[in-house]
Design the sequence.
């Protein structure tokens, strides 16, 4: 029905639910409100939102799995019936799965006494999953993770663009030292087999319908060789550990010999192969009868 005494105030980032029931064509169908210039629903779902600042908001029903209608009304925050509301003087939105959805925009006015009532419904009683997203119509914000990193030559590094406060479709363009990287147009930037030419400052530009935002610069340092790991001892067992700033590395191999003569002769015995990693803690086998033992950690098998 049209009663919405249990609306949720403050739901400002989206709603996902199911349209249940189907009153279209029934005896009570005349009581169902018509939105979008006489578009009928079947069993409307309502939410109410209030804002403490003036914003341009955008409403989308992209993602709904059924033909969907969505409209915005305004009224007192404690309204209980449709008769207490009035529709905003703007177009509403409809969406059919597989089509490019239209967007609905309205400007909020901060007022604790009033609320914006957003209704979503299946057109002509359609049933299934519906989705309505309500977001500020602003240029996106973006941060890149990790903020800085180092990698051993031949290793792999991944940068992730974490986008906030966005609405609509996003476009990504990664840059190295201010120059666009060809083909780097996804939220993730994956760099395989890094080499010194990839050393530098990485940024990403994220664009939507309302503008572009360039992230802060993120430094990648490409190291020519593996830094020295550390050796610790716990309960009489020696461990080879990466430091807290260990770089992203390619596959590593740990080798060992029992004497200096064997080491000089290159008679290293492979203990283990490590997949590409950012950290490790390896026990170092050593016999009590051995006066000494030597270990070697190198990139690649």
Sequence:
């Amino acid at each position: 029905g049209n009663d919405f005494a249990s609306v949720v105030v403050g739901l400002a980032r989206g709603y996902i639910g199911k349209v249940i029931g189907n009153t279209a064509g029934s005896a009570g169908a005349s009581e169902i409100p018509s939105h979008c210039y006489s578009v009928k629903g079947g069993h409307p779902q309502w939410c109410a939102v209030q804002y403490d600042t003036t914003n341009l908001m955008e409403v989308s029903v992209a993602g709904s799995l059924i033909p969907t209608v969505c409209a915005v009304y305004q009224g007192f925050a404690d309204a209980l019936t449709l008769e207490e509301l009035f529709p905003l003087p703007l177009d509403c939105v409809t969406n059919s799965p597989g089509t490019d959805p239209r967007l609905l925009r309205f400007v909020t006015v901060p007022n604790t006494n009033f609320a914006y009532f957003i209704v979503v419904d299946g057109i002509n009683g359609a049933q299934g999953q519906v989705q309505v997203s309500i977001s500020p119509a602003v240029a996106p914000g973006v941060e890149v993770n990790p903020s800085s990193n180092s990698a051993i030559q031949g290793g792999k590094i991944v940068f992730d663009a974490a986008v906030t406060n966005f609405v609509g479709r996003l476009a990504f363009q990664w840059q190295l030292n201010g120059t666009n990287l060809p083909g780097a147009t996804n939220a993730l930037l994956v760099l395989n087999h890094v080499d010194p030419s990839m050393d530098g400052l990485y940024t990403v530009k994220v664009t939507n319908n309302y503008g572009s935002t360039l992230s802060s610069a993120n430094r990648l340092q490409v190291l020519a060789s593996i830094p020295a790991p550390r050796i610790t001892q716990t309960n009489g067992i020696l461990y080879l550990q990466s430091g807290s700033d260990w770089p992203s590395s390619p596959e590593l191999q740990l080798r060992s010999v029992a004497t200096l003569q064997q080491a000089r002769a290159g008679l290293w015995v492979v203990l283990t192969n490590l997949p590409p990693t950012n950290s490790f803690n390896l026990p170092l086998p050593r016999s009590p009868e051995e006066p000494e033992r030597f270990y070697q950690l190198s990139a690649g098998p």
The chain has one helix and 26 strands. Residues 1-31 have pLDDT under 50 and may be disordered. Residues 58 and 105 are 4 Å apart (CA to CA).
